Amino acid sequence: MRIEISGLTKAYGQKVFALDGLDLVVPTGMFGLLGANGAGKTTLMRILAGILRPSSGQVTVGGHDMGTGTGRTAVQRTLGYLPQDLGVYPDLTARQFLDYVALLKGMDDRSVRRRRVGELLEVVALTAHADRRLRGFSGGMRQRVGIAQALLADPQLLIVDEPTAGLDPEERIRFRTLLSQFADRRTVLLSTHIVDDIAQTCREVAVLAKGKLIFRGTVDELTRRAEGRVWSVVTDGPPPAEGTVVSALPHENGMRYRIVSPTAPSPQAQPVEPGLEDGYLATAGR
Ligand SMILES: Nc1ncnc2c1ncn2[C@@H]1O[C@H](COP(=O)(O)OP(=O)(O)OP(=O)(O)O)[C@@H](O)[C@H]1O
């Protein structure tokens, strides 16, 4: 399901432009969205989910115009949305919660609902915990309940906002594998600060800064943005003033700094191969 966005603007009051004339096409498959805090990612996702109205501009999802009531209704029927903070009901069990959301989505037939909820609990590997109250669930288990509720209506478009924040490494990997499998023949828009989640799952990515698109292309192209700009510096003094420090590791002669900088940040700096995080920093860094 293809998303086409043109001239999209969302202003909060007179001064804050959360989105500022955004043009973007998102194809079928898994697509990553990166950007610093406040870049406009959540605003964009809420507009795509039909929860928020833009100030101006156009959005079509699968050919449906989100500017019209019929368009929004058509999209919402085939959309799954996992917001940053999914409010769950701590006293409900996972099965009861999913049954309740299914009812809200208009799945009136009880046996259909029961079957679908059972299937999804299986998909997110929570069958063994289905009848436990949500208050005792770990962050990862809650996120899996979140993805199950987003998948209830077998959506063609799945929007997920920072889904792996707070998950342990194993849960993160399981979660993103689940998303990748789901993205086969469908569209998944994944917004995150965790660059590695995008490197591991998406072919294409967009980078937002201050409500504007500053990059759209493949993960490899974004990585190549840092070519010739990533350096390793070993020093027992402070890191060089120039560039952005990506990592600092203890070294027998002091510290080894990985630095993104257009020019060598010190005379001893050695060039190194870039990764996606370097490409992102070279593009979005101050
Ligand atoms: N309801 C609101 N009222 C006023 N300003 C808002 C509102 N929601 C968002 N903003 C502002 O709009 C800008 C974009 O916010 P948004 O939440 O879309 O960014 P984001 O990229 O999702 O950030 P984060 O990564 O922190 O979630 C920010 O400057 C934010 O402060």
TrEMBL record:
<dbReference type="GO" id="GO:0016887">
    <property type="term" value="F:ATP hydrolysis activity"/>
</dbReference>
<dbReference type="InterPro" id="IPR027417">
    <property type="entry name" value="P-loop_NTPase"/>
</dbReference>
<feature type="region of interest" description="Disordered">
    <location>
        <begin position="262"/>
        <end position="286"/>
    </location>
</feature>
<dbReference type="InterPro" id="IPR017871">
    <property type="entry name" value="ABC_transporter-like_CS"/>
</dbReference>
<protein>
    <submittedName>
        <fullName>ABC transporter ATP-binding protein</fullName>
    </submittedName>
</protein>
<dbReference type="InterPro" id="IPR003439">
    <property type="entry name" value="ABC_transporter-like_ATP-bd"/>
</dbReference>
<dbReference type="InterPro" id="IPR003593">
    <property type="entry name" value="AAA+_ATPase"/>
</dbReference>
<dbReference type="Pfam" id="PF00005">
    <property type="entry name" value="ABC_tran"/>
</dbReference>
<keyword id="KW-0813">Transport</keyword>
<comment type="similarity">
    <text>Belongs to the ABC transporter superfamily.</text>
</comment>
<feature type="domain" description="ABC transporter">
    <location>
        <begin position="3"/>
        <end position="235"/>
    </location>
</feature>
<keyword id="KW-0547">Nucleotide-binding</keyword>
<dbReference type="GO" id="GO:0005524">
    <property type="term" value="F:ATP binding"/>
</dbReference>
<keyword id="KW-0067">ATP-binding</keyword>
